[in-house]
Amino acid sequence: MLAEPAGGPFDPKNCPVRDVFSHIGDKWASLILQVLCTQNHRFGELRRAIPDISQAMLTSTLRTLQRDGLVHREVFPTQPPSVEYSLTELGQSLIGPIAGLVFWSVEHHARIQQSRRQYDVDNPPVRKLR
User: Fold this and answer.
1) CA angle 105-22-94, nearest 5°?
2) Whole-number pLDDT of residue 97
3) In this structure, what are the phi and psi dihedrals at residue 124, rounded to the nearest 5 degrees?
4) Across the strands, what pairs with 85?
5) Cis link prior to 124 (omega < 30° from 0)?
6) Phi, psi dihedral angles at 76 (to 5 degrees)
C-alpha cells in the first residue's frame, strides 16, 4: 500500500498524480527527459537522439515539459538564433524516479511480453458475424 501524500488523504476529484503523470508518463516525455539528463541539447540533437519522434511531437512535448518547469529553453542570439534545452532543478529531481521505472521495465519486459502472448492465446478476438 502506498503512503498518504503529505497534502492529506487522496482526493480523486483533484488528483495530482493524474495531473503530473499525464505529462511525464507519456513515452516521448520520458525519452526526452532521459536524453537531457546527460547534457544540454539543441532541438536537432534531440531529434537525432529520438529518431522516431516527429518534429511536431518533439516541439509539443518540449513545450509541455517547459510549461511544467521540468525543461529550460535558452535562445542564443546567433544568426539564425539557436536554442538549447536543459533540465531544470525540478527536472533533475525526476530522473531518479524515471530511472527506477526504466530499470524495472528492462528487468521485467520479457515477463510482460510472455504474459501478453499468453493472454492473447487464452482470449482470442471475437469474430463479428455479418
Assistant:
1) 60
2) 92
3) -65, 155
4) 41, 73
5) no
6) -100, 140
Q: Which residues contact 91 (CB under 8 A, 6 or more apart)?
A: 33, 36, 65, 69, 70, 71, 72
Q: Please write the tens of the pLDDT for every residue from 30-65.
A: 999 999 999 999 999 999 999 999 999 999 999 999
Q: For 82-116, b where at least 16 C-beta lie within 10 A, e where not — what string?
A: eeebebbeebeebbeebeeeeeeeeeeeeeeeeee
Q: Taking the model in full, what pTM does it have?
A: 0.78
Grid coordinates belonging to 109: 519486459
pLDDT at residue number 115: 97
Angle between helices 27-36 and 55-67 (to 10 degrees): 70
Beta-ladder partners of 73: 85
On whether the CB atoms of residues 86 and 71 are closer than 8 A, the answer is: yes
Residue 104 CA to residue 106 CA, distance in Å, equals 6
| Cβ-proximal residues to 23 (8 Å cutoff; 6+ apart), any chain | 29, 64, 65, 68
- Tell me which amino acid residue 46 is: L
